[in-house]
Specification:
The protein is α/β, with parallel strands linked by helices and about 375 residues long. The chain is built from ten helices and 14 strands. The chain has one domain. Strands 1-11-14-13-12-6-8-7 form an eight-stranded mixed β-sheet, covered by helices on one side. A six-stranded mixed β-sheet has the order 2-3-10-4-5-9. It is globular, with a radius of gyration of 23 Å.
Length: about 375
């Protein structure tokens, strides 16, 4: 076979370009060089939607116990705060394990959000015929309004209320979920993928950490250190390593869920395996006891506060401003209490002033456009100084 001379010369030139590395940053390995970053077109007139979600927070952590309603076994699986998507596979595995102790041929799942769909698929894999009963499908459920980031201990509990034993349970759920998320990587539509995240600060990160700890006056549980082996450690980048016009930049890599694509895939998988969905609203536990299925997994999320009269659930309001999608923006960042994450279905912009206490015990699902406009303007100003 004759080697094309032009191809050979082109390859040598490319190798020479790599060797020269005129843009090398002192203190940064060549494999860690930050790729070109497309700017977010952050202008208020590009906000094409604004959504509000009430996250179901429980100080003691998710409810995963069982109870009997007459001859019906109910397995509870709700109250995950801001960690529903992240912990869904691990939490669902626990719930389905308890449900299958009765070896049921049929299982009912109440709710079609993150926990409901995941539990339903896990119950199918365990051999049961499953029907989901829900007021609304995923596209209309609160779960569809989530940020879509891997946040397994976001408002998961209060440290003192949950107690020292909760860490082991949380770690179990997180590790099982992480392993299951692995099987969704690389699928068409990128339902799950890894992306770079940047934390940007005008002040040293030690000061940022101190401010964050001072805000956490309720002592929300923090457990990420228990799974630190699963993801790369955050990397503080040297000055000039990125085009961001700030003094301090830290980079990490983490999972994100493109919920629009992922939700459609979940529903398709559930139906293809013979799953059924019945649109139905329940007003009291007795109505659930009347179902033909005598094993039920209750995944009603914030709805459990009214349905089960569970006053332990505290609403945590969260609002997302959606900028028009930009496929070329393949990263996320946090700057001045504003979080930005690029997804296939839009660029998520959230104002997070006050840290984890923002929106705590606020059950107003009314849209506040000015909140999203202010957040977009913070990002707009940042990019006006972009290198």
């Amino acid at each position: 076979m004759t080697l094309d001379r032009r191809l050979l010369l082109g390859s040598l030139a490319a190798l020479g370009g790599c060797a020269a590395q005129p843009g090398r940053i002192p203190g940064l390995a060549v494999e860690d060089v930050v790729p070109p970053l497309a700017p977010v077109r952050a202008h208020p007139d590009r906000l094409f939607d604004i959504t509000v979600c009430l996250r179901p927070f429980r100080a003691a952590g998710p409810r995963l116990d069982t109870e009997m309603l007459g001859d019906t076994l109910v397995v509870h699986n709700y109250g995950h705060g801001g960690s529903g998507w992240s912990l869904s596979w691990g939490s669902g595995t626990i719930a389905v394990g308890k449900a299958m102790e009765r070896s049921p041929r049929e299982i009912a799942v109440i709710g079609c959000g993150a926990l409901g769909l995941t539990s339903a698929i896990l119950a199918q894999r365990a051999g049961a015929s499953v029907t989901i009963y829900c007021k609304e499908l995923l596209q209309q459920a609160r779960s569809a309004r989530a940020t879509g980031g891997w946040t397994p201990d976001s408002r998961i509990c209060l440290e003192d209320t949950a107690g020292p034993q909760f860490g082991a349970l949380w770690e179990q759920m997180a590790r099982v979920s992480w392993k299951n998320w692995r099987s969704w990587l690389g699928l068409p539509g990128n339902p799950v993928c890894f992306s770079d995240r940047y934390v940007l600060s005008d002040t040293p990160f030690e000061e940022v950490r101190a401010t964050s700890e001072a805000r956490n006056t309720m002592r929300f549980g923090e457990y990420q250190h228990l799974i630190s082996d699963l993801t790369p450690r955050p990397q503080v980048l040297p000055p000039g390593a990125t085009p961001f016009p700030v003094a301090h930049v830290r980079r990490s890599e983490t999972l994100q869920f493109n919920i629009h694509d992922y939700g459609h895939q979940l529903m398709s998988d559930f139906r293809l395996a013979g799953g059924k969905v019945e649109i139905r609203e329940f007003h009291a536990p007795g109505e659930i006891a009347a179902l033909k299925e005598k094993v039920v997994i209750n995944c009603t999320g914030y709805g459990a506060r009214a349905l089960w009269k569970d006053e332990s659930i505290v609403p945590v309001r969260g609002q997302i401003g959606w900028l028009i999608p930009q496929p070329e923006v393949n990263y996320g960042f946090f700057y001045r209490d504003v979080s930005v994450l690029s997804r296939t279905d839009g660029i998520v912009v959230q104002a997070l002033e006050g840290g984890d206490l923002k929106g705590y015990n606020d059950d107003h699902e009314v849209i506040d456009r000015e909140e999203s406009v202010r957040a977009v303007k913070v990002i707009e100003e940042l990019y006006s100084r972009f290198k």
